[in-house]
Write a structure and sequence with these properties.
The chain is mostly helical. 70% of the residues lie in helices and 1% in strands.
């Protein structure tokens, strides 16, 4: 069972079998629809208090819309969950969009998704303002020092869980190992993802590998603007090259939102490869700070893009990055509903997604290694990583509490450190 899922939901169930007697229904009739005010109130609340990552977000949604409000049956909720696993983008956000469309039509689609995103984007923007204004999050250098190794631990645990599901055959394990090797030598992430998907699809189509189940698909549930200026270093040392602009940044985040399968942690691979390695808009430390903020704030992990957009381009940058990374989710949810039953019955399409999932885990492995070199700087950070893994794997402690504990340890270490 995936950490954070509700007791009544088996996340792997949604894609393993065709739903029994349930189809992807369109929006409700006018008499059955939920009011826009009630829909907005629910998702504004969830966007403000939903800590813990996609699995926890989905658990909270299930409790609200199935258990408390009875807007959906358990089977209908699982169908929508299965739909989100077959399209790229942030799963919990897409779940909110699906529910909004199901309950209130097209207006509900945009309202539910926006209300889930906006509180987190606002909170992250405040963090980013403080980061740019003071060169760091004020008084939080020690906190981030403690949070970063915890984040590495959380990613490692997610990597283990996803890998166990993704590498369900020897061939998929070989695809994952190949993807990891290609990632380490610098092959572009999209090439690895698409290549893996095509390879597995062709092999399965030719009968070289049997499709045993759909578990893999369902297991990946997971200042002043500086744009268009000469090379500049903002407070905190973020180097912005001459090639930076709002339009290129929008296209970059639009690309990520359009192609990113897997958990939100796969986002790290794309951010590091382009923003750090290729374009040098950020360095490793600032990327980890951005991920840390995404972890300690509620709502979608993808609001990491909001933080990055602000430190690179102020409020316009935050707006552009946020719209860019979330916009595809609205499109895919609107377009995918009628197609999902056909995709789920297609052996070739399912095989392609199996390959993409295996490659996603491979990319996570590469980026976790690279970021770990920055986060693990001494015995204290190594101890935090080990403790995080023990508590996550052995005791199933919620990652939110571990992040808060890491922040406390980091702060105390910083305060008590000899001058």
């Amino acid at each position: 069972m995936v950490r954070g899922q509700p007791s009544g939901i088996k996340l792997g169930q949604a894609n393993m079998t065709e739903p029994q007697g349930v189809s992807f229904r369109g929006p409700l009739s006018r008499a059955q629809r939920t009011s826009l005010r009630e829909l907005a109130g629910l998702f504004l609340k969830l966007g403000t208090v939903a800590f813990g990552g996609p699995a926890a977000h989905i658990a909270m949604m299930e409790d609200e819309v199935v258990g408390r409000r009875r807007w959906l049956s358990q089977e209908e909720f699982l169908d929508l969950l299965g739909a989100t696993n077959l399209i790229p983008g942030p799963n919990s956000t897409e779940m909110a969009i699906h529910i909004g469309h199901r309950q209130a039509g097209w207006r509900g689609l945009f309202l539910a998704g926006s209300c889930f995103i906006l509180p987190a984007a606002f909170i992250v923007t405040v963090f980013a303002w403080a980061y740019v204004r003071f060169g760091e999050l004020p008084g939080t250098s020690g906190i981030l020092y403690g949070i970063k190794p915890v984040i590495i631990g959380v990613v490692l645990q997610a990597l283990w869980e996803l890998g166990r599901a993704a590498f369900k055959t020897k061939f998929l394990a070989l695809v994952g190992a190949t993807g990891t090797a290609l990632g380490f030598v610098g092959i572009h992430e999209l090439v690895i993802l698409l290549g893996a998907g095509v390879a597995v699809g062709l092999v399965r189509l030719m009968g070289g590998e049997s499709r045993k189940s759909g578990k893999t698909i369902s297991s990946l549930f997971s200042g002043a603007p500086l744009a268009y200026v000469a090379p500049t270093t903002i407070t905190g040392g973020v180097a912005v090259t001459a090639s930076f602009g709002l339009w290129p940044m929008f296209l970059f985040f639009l690309k990520i939102g359009s192609v990113l399968f897997g958990s939100g942690y796969v986002l790290l691979a794309f951010l590091r490869a382009d923003l750090v390695e290729r374009w040098h808009w950020l360095n490793e430390s600032h990327l980890l700070d951005a991920i840390a903020v995404g972890q300690v704030t509620p709502g979608p992990v993808f609001t990491t893009a909001t933080f990055i957009g602000y430190i690179l381009g102020g409020l316009p940058g935050a707006f552009v990055a946020t719209v860019g990374i979330f916009l595809p989710a609205f499109f895919f949810v609107a377009a995918s509903g009628p197609l999902v039953p056909r995709i789920r019955r297609s052996v070739t399409a399912a095989a392609f997604l199996d390959g993409v999932n295996a490659a996603s885990v491979a990319l996570m492995t590469v980026v976790t290694y690279q970021l770990g070199k920055t986060a693990l700087v001494d015995l204290t950070t190594v101890a935090l990583l080990v403790a995080t893994l023990i508590l996550l794997v052995g005791f199933r402690v919620n990652s939110v509490w571990l992040v808060l504990a890491g922040a406390l340890v980091g702060h105390l270490t910083h305060v008590l450190k000899p001058i």
